[in-house]
Amino acid sequence: MSWSPDGAYLAVGHAPTFCLTIIDTTDWSVVPGTPAVSSTGYDCAWSPDGAYLAVAHAGSPYLTVIDTTDWSVVPGTPAVSSTGLTVAWLPDINRPTRHGILYDHDGNPLSLPVQLLRRPAWARSQVVTPDPVSGAFTVRGFAPGDYHLLIPDTRPGATDDRLLRITLDETTGALAPLEVYMPYAGALTTINGNATKAIDGSAADDVIVRAWGSHGHVIDVVPAPSGDWSAEVPPGTYDITYRSAGCQPVCHGPYTIAAPEEEG
Predict the structure, then answer these.
(1) What's the predicted TM-score (pTM) here?
(2) Less Cβ around it within 10 Å: N or C end of the chain?
(3) DSSP code of 262?
C-alpha cells in the first residue's frame, strides 16, 4: 500500500483479482481504468513527482510501471526474473536537477505544468508545476543526459507551446535558474504606419518592430509600394525602425498599443 506524494491517491496491491486498486482520496472512490496486474500485488511505490506508479507483483512480468496521467502501463518496462516483492524509486537527492522560472510574455511569473522528456526517445521523466507566486520550478532526471522541457500552453487564446533542450548532470543544479518565457496568449492588435524615403518618397525596404523595454525582435514587415505597413502584435510598447539600402536606419518610439478591448 502506498500514498501518492500529494495524498490524492492511495494504491493498494492485493489478491485475488485485478490485484491492484487505486483509490481517489477526495471521495474514496476507485479510480476507473486502473490496469490490472497479472497476479498478487506485493508492493507499490509512487515516483517522487507522482508521475508514475511502480508495482511489484507475482506473475510475469513481475514489475509493472503505470503512467498516472492516464493510468496506462508504460511500454518497454523490463521484466524481472521472478516474483517482485518490493519496489522503490531513486530518491530526489541523488538525481541531476535544473532550476527554472516560468514567465508569461510580459515577464510575470506563470504556473503551467512543465514536462521533462528524455532525449531522443521523448520518454516522459517528470511533470512539475511552478510555484504560482514566483514561477520557480525544479526538474529532476533519472540519470544525467539530454532532455527536453515541454510546456503545453493551456491558457485561453494560446496558440504555441514552448519546447527547450537542456542537459542535466551533477553540475546543473548549481546553475542560475533557467528563465523561460511563454509566447503571448490572447487577442492580437494592429500596429501600423507609413515608411517612405525622404529623398524620393518611395517605400522603405523593411520595417522592424521591437519591444521597447528589452529591444527584443517582434516582427519584420515589408511595406506596400505606398509605404503603408501594418502588423499584428501583442498589446504592449514598441519601437519602430525603418531600413533602406544606402540610408541610415530611422528609429521611432515608444508606441504603446492597447489590447482590442481597451481601444476606443
Answers:
(1) 0.58
(2) C
(3) G
